[in-house]
Every structure is written in C-alpha cells, then in structure tokens.
Amino acid sequence: QVQLVESGGGLVQAGGSLRLSCAASGRTLNDYAMGWFRQAPGKEREFVAAMARGGGRTDYADSVKGRFTISRDIAFRTLYLQMNSLTPEDTAVYYCAADQSGSRAYATVKGEHYDYWGQGTQVTVSS
Fold it and tell me: 10 Å Cβ neighbour count for 50?
C-alpha cells in the first residue's frame, strides 16, 4: 500500500508557473502507474497527466499538452507536475493517484482505474 501527499499548490497569476509534488510513502512509485487529476468547483474530476509503471510512457489531456509535464525523481519517491503558462481555466484542486495494476506499456488515463489518491492541493490562477 502507498500513501500519497500532494503539495505545491497556491495562487498564481495567469501566465505563471507552479510545480506540484506528490510524495509517496509505504512503497516506491516504481510499483505503480501514476497520474494527476483535477476537479474544479461544480465540475467533474478530469484527467490531466499520467505516467506508465516504470516511467517509460506518459500521456496528457489535450488541454494541458505543451504546458504541463509529469515527471518523477530518480528514487521513485516523488511525482511532479510542472505547470507552465497557467490560465484561470486551470484553477482546480489537483490530485495525484496510483494504479497498482498499471501497465508499463501505456499510461492509465481513467480515474476509476486508480487505487490510491492523495488529499489534493488547491491551484488558483488569477486573471
């Protein structure tokens, strides 16, 4: 079992950047496929970015391609989401998640396939 704790959220102006972190305890992230999701007020949770087990493949939502980058540290203890060129539409609570059955060949993009979730970190982008 793995425990996930997100950090790095905050208030930023449009056009700015933030880097979110997701610290894992219990087991290393190498044992899981990993993902970032977000949920804005009044909206359903949506996929943002994901990384296949082992880190060899990544996938992104069309809305963040070219602006966001998912990565992890070499020790497989922390997952990151680098977010650049932020817009007010990126305002949401961001969650990291771990899929214990994830593939090494492709990233898991559906939230229902994830087994473990962090508590979330708020990102607010002002115009």
Answer: 26
**CA 31 to each of CA 9, 57, 107: distance values in angstroms, whole numbers, following the listed order:** 26, 14, 13
Specify whether the CB–CB gap between 4 and 24 falls below 8 A. Answer: yes
Q: Count other Cβ atoms within 10 Å, centred on residue 85.
A: 13
Q: What is the pLDDT along the chain (127 residues), one digit of tens a residue?
A: 899 999 999 999 999 999 999 999 988 888 899 999 999 999 999 999 999 998 889 999 999 999 999 999 988 899 999 999 999 999 999 999 999 988 888 899 999 999 999 999 999 999 9
Q: Using alpha carbons, select from 58, 70, 68, 55 the residue that is nearest to residue 107.
A: 58
Q: Under a CB-based contact definition with an 8 Å cutoff, are residues 14 and 125 in contact?
A: yes
